[in-house]
Amino acid sequence: MRLPSSAHTSRPWLIHQIAEDFALEDVWALATPGAGPDDFPALVAIAGDGLEKQVSAPARALFWLRWKLGALLRLDRAGGGLGTRVASLRERLPEELRAAATAHQDTGSTFTFLYEVADERAMEIANRTMHGVVHFGWVPDGRGGWRGQLAILVKPNGRLGTAYMAFIKPFRYLIVYPSMLRACERAWRARPITETHRLDKG
Hints:
There is one protein chain. This protein is an alpha+beta fold. The chain has helices spanning about 5-10, 15-20, 40-50, 55-75, 95-105, 160-190, 195-200, and strands spanning about 25-30, 110-115, 120-125, 130-140, 145-155. Strands 1-5-4-3-2 form a 5-stranded antiparallel beta sheet. A hairpin with a 2-residue loop joins β2 and β3 (about 120-125). Residues about 195-200 have low confidence and may be disordered.
């Protein structure tokens, strides 16, 4: 379910300080049925595995096409990414989180780990068209439970980036996001639950 921007902007997230010059593109609710206040690490584990690899065939085809076009148009060449065209947002982090980011071992996701705290995880990506952030949060669901929340923040790179974001928007809304949300819910329901977790849930 897509959420209003206020669902993200009203929360006291660290990301507001780190990416204050980025535009909030989208906010989505993540289905995490049965979740409690201490279950954010389970969502982090799912996100860390790379949701983009667990999506439907049409969404995978779009990703494949994007990378092929990126190679053809040189959108993803080394000089257009993090540390070259743009500085990583790691440079804006508090010292302890910057050190943790440097020590973090990526697990194959196309996004670069930025930071993780008690109720947030952020990752970033950059190419010739934009500098983007994927932000996962953990919030009360209003019904006595808890759920995940996904926000996409973007800084387009000039006219090329603005045109690119406008071009892919229909594909994101119709194919990519719905598939990613379903993949997240499937992974959540399929996650291993320890006996201690069952007892805690009653």
